[in-house]
Amino acid sequence: MKFSRRRFIAATTVLTSALAFGRRAAAADAGAVQESDANAQALGYKTDASRVDHTKFPKFQAGQACVNCQFFQGKTGDAMAPCTIFGGKQVNAKGWCSAYVKKA
Predict the structure, then answer these.
(1) Dist CA 67 CA 92 (whole Å)
(2) Which ranges carry the High potential iron-sulfur proteins family profile domain (predicted)?
């Protein structure tokens, strides 16, 4: 079987595209952070910032939420988006955790 340069380039292009698409799909399917996850519990993550325990997390202030945190990878208006603190898993825009840092 003869393998021409043209076939090699075509096969390589298809394979590269498939791999790139697979990585994006895997990132999109990373799933949502659950409050019961070990990292979420350690950071006091709540899907709704109004439920944060103020005695346990005294640095929490009203108005803080994932949507205005520098680690939130979404845009204003997104209900869920990846968070760098949780390895790219989706967090609720209305959520909060103790790693909160206001967007600059």
Answers:
(1) 8
(2) 27-104
